[in-house]
């Protein structure tokens, strides 16, 4: 069997966008991804759907896998012919034990690549507004481990030299030793009023920064009960934070926001949350696909075959537009055959999707749901006219029913189906219980129903209760009603039922909660 290949990839400090382009490419190719929690589970969303995920971190019933076991695992997988990505937090060569992993691969004649990552030593201070060097304040920096017993720390660190060798000192894994570290630095000649910062969980929603001096930082860490992981920065550059802190100023900073819509539709919401400083957490629980039953296919073909007869084509989602055109292509129907039809769009995104295909919507209602569409249609559509409604299988019955009552001949076709996806991310229940998810966004009734079901599948007995203390944001009144009917307390519903509206409402809600 041909041997596989192993990529030892730096994942960056937490923000999944801080992986390198090369690292991401390797991840997208991998058949197996070996990861732990510091190297963000969210990055797994980029792996192939059929890729195997192997978690080597701590589990309630298991200790973290020993380094030797991980080394051997990588060798075994490669010997099975697999393309493997080993994701590592930060940069793999900075206290990442990549030497041991690569060493054993080399011994076994397995090809490997080391793909650098952005180390927390630099990135985490940067996210707190602290540059590790500065033209006026520090012309060099050291990265030092704090993870040794005090004796060994003394043994492997030459405090007399390290203390003054560079302008800035960065300690990783040093939180528990902060008292000892500051003592040594003072003892070897750093002034006791030297500024120090601890940045905990940098680039993540939990990012928190504590600033003090060598004199008082240990007490402050104790008082604040600050726990690892944190990067410790010592030196004058810390003062830069007063003017350069940036991410903390963004309106959604500190908020981890669950995005439940299908991955194929989520990018707009995800990137808007990200731009506003929030941390989008993708947990897609629906999937959009083509219907497969013969009956449905025949119904679509027959309905499109009558293109000339329609007075109206009503599109109620972007998916509806996308799939409508896919089916036209599949059955060889030219759009010009709908020459009689007016096109109605439920909202601006649907209208935009139509416009991209060269069709300007004839009707766009005041607010963006089926009731409003119906209202605006009332004076325009008459008894005896014919309307085509290409929709998803879960679309509500209200619109076709009401149209029929008005004497409109209504042809409804399911041109796509919404299916529940099996949850692959097993951490959600624990994250919810730990308060690590701050907001949940629902963009359709099926996202509500399916999230509750997914949580049940993940072992949560009362999902609605598990979501009690979390902000629930729904795109519009229909989704909000479904959420409330299922026992959720909805706190955010925008005036306009669009993604932009939803994001604006999240920002407003944040302002209210912060008392701004
Ligand atoms: N290879 C990693 C470091 C591994 S050692 C890198 O290059 O970043 C683990 C230590 O890194 C932690 O104890 C902490 O000091 C630091 N660290 C990693 N990610 C961090 C984060 N997001 N916030 C704060 N510290 C972090």
From TrEMBL:
One GO MF term: uroporphyrin-III C-methyltransferase activity
Annotated EC: 2.1.1.107
Keywords: Methyltransferase, Porphyrin biosynthesis, S-adenosyl-L-methionine, Transferase
Pfam families hit by this protein: HEM4, TP_methylase
GO terms, biological process: methylation; siroheme biosynthetic process
Taxonomy of the source species: Bacteria, Bacillati, Bacillota, Bacilli, Bacillales
Protein name per UniProt: Uroporphyrinogen-III C-methyltransferase
Family: Belongs to the precorrin methyltransferase family.
Organism in which the protein naturally occurs: Cohnella abietis
Positions of the Tetrapyrrole methylase domain: 5-217
Record has Transcription as a keyword: no
């Amino acid at each position: 069997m041909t041997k596989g290949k192993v990529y030892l990839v730096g994942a960056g400090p937490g923000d999944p966008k801080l992986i390198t382009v090369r690292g991401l490419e390797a991840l997208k190719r991998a058949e197996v991804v070996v990861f732990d929690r510091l190297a963000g589970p969210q990055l797994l969303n980029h792996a192939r759907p059929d890729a195997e995920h192997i978690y080597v971190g701590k589990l309630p019933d298991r200790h973290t896998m020993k380094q030797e076991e991980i080394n051997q695992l990588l060798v075994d997988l490669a010997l099975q012919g697999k393309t493997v990505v080993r994701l590592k937090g930060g940069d793999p060569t900075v206290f990442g034990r990549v030497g041991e992993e690569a060493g054993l691969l080399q011994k076994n004649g397995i090809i490997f690549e080391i793909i650098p990552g952005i180390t927390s030593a630099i990135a985490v201070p940067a996210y707190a507004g602290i540059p590790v060097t500065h033209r006026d304040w520090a012309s060099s920096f050291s990265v030092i481990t704090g993870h040794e017993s005090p004796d060994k720390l003394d043994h492997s660190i030459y405090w007399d030299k390290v203390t003054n060798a560079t302008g800035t000192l960065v300690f990783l894994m040093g939180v528990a030793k902060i008292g000892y570290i500051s003592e040594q630095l003072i003892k070897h000649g750093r002034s006791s009023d030297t500024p120090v910062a601890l940045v905990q969980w940098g680039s993540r929603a939990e990012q928190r920064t504590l600033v003090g001096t060598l004199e008082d930082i240990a007490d402050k860490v104790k008082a604040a009960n600050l726990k690892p992981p944190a990067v410790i920065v010592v030196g004058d550059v810390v003062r830069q934070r007063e003017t350069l802190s940036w991410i903390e100023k963004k309106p959604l900073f500190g908020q981890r926001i669950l995005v439940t819509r299908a991955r194929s539709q989520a990018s707009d919401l995800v990137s808007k949350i990200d731009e506003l400083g929030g941390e989008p957490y993708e947990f897609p629980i629906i999937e959009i696909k083509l219907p497969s039953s013969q009956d449905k296919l025949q119904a679509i073909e027959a309905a499109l075959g009558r293109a000339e007869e329609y007075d109206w084509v009503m599109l109620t989602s972007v998916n509806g537009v996308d799939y409508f055109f896919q089916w036209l292509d599949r059955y060889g129907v030219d759009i010009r055959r709908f020459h009689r039809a007016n096109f109605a769009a439920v909202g601006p995104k649907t209208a935009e999707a139509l416009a991209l295909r060269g069709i300007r919507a004839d009707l766009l209602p005041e607010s963006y749901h089926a009731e409003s569409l119906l209202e605006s249609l009332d004076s325009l559509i008459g008894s005896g006219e014919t309307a085509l409604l290409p929709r998803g299988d879960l679309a509500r019955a209200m619109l076709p029913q009401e149209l029929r009552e008005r004497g409109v001949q209504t042809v409804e076709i399911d041109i796509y189906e919404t299916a529940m996806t099996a949850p692959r991310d097993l951490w959600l229940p624990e994250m919810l219980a730990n308060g690590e998810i701050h907001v949940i966004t629902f963009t359709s009734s099926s996202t509500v129903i399916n999230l509750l079901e997914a949580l049940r599948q993940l072992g949560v007995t009362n999902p609605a209760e598990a979501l009690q203390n979390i902000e629930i944001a729904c795109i519009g009144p229909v989704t909000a009603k479904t959420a409330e009917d299922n026992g959720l307390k909805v706190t955010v519903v925008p005036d306009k039922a669009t993604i932009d509206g939803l994001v604006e409402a999240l920002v407003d809600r944040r302002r209210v909660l912060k008392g701004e």
